[in-house]
Amino acid sequence: MPPLTSFGSRPRLDPGVPEFDAQQEHAPSELSRREFLYLSGATIALSSQALLGCTRAPAEKIFPYRVQPPEIVPGRALHYASASTLDGYGTGIVVESHEGRPTKIEGNSAHPASLGASSAAQQALLLELYDPRRIRTVTRGGLPALGDDLTRALRAAGALERRGRGVHLVLGASSSPLLARQLAMLQSKLPELAVHFHVPLSRTAAWQGSRLAFGSTLEARVDLRRADVVVAIGADMLAQGPEHLAVARAFADARRMRTSTDAMNRLYVVETSMSVTGGMADHRLALVPSQMPAFAAALLRELAVALGAAGMPGDLAARLAAQADTLASHGAFVRAVARDLLTQRGRGAVLAGDHLPAAAHAAVHAMNALLGNHALSYAPSPIIGSEQESFGSLRALREALAARAVDSLIVLDRDLAYASAADLELESLLGRAKESIYFGLFANQTSAACNYRAPAAHVLESWSDTRSLGGTTSIVQPMILPLYGGQTPSEVLAVLIGAEQPSAHELLRDFWREQRPNDFESFWETTLSRGTVEGTEIAPVTSPSLSWGWLRQLVESTPAPGGVELNLIADTRLHDGLLGNSPWLLELPCPVTKQCWGNAALIAPALARRLGVSNGQVLELTRGGRTVALPALIVPGHADAALTLALGWGQKYESGQESFGVSGYRLMASNEQAVAPLQIRVTGQLDELALTQDTMSLGESADSILLSSTLADYQKAPKALTPKLKRPLSMYASDAPESERQWGMTIDLNACTGCSACVVACQAENNIPSVGKNGVLKHREMHWLRVDRYLGGSEAAPRVLVEPMACQHCEKAPCEYVCPTGATTHSTDGLNQMVYNRCVGTRFCSNNCPYKVRRFNWFDYHQGEASPRELAENPEVTVRARGVMEKCSYCVQRIRKAEIAAKVGHRPLLDQDVRTACEQACPTQAIRFGDINDARSEVAALRQSERAFQVLPELGAVPRTRYLMKLTNPNPELK
Amino acid sequence: MKFRPPGTGLARSARAETLSVEVEIAHEETQGDKARGAALFPIWSTSVFRLVLVLGVLGVVSIPAALWAWERTPYVSGVSMLRPQPVKFDHRHHARDDGIACMYCHSDAARSASAGMPATSLCMGCHSQIWTNSPELAPVRQAYFSDAPLAWNRVTRLPHFVYFNHSIHVAKGVGCVTCHGRVDRMAQVYPVEPFTMDFCLDCHRAPDARLRPLTEITNMEWQPSGSPAESGARLRQQLNVQPPTDCTTCHR
Question: Do residue B152 and residue A61 have CB atoms under 8 angstroms apart?
Answer without folding.
Answer: yes
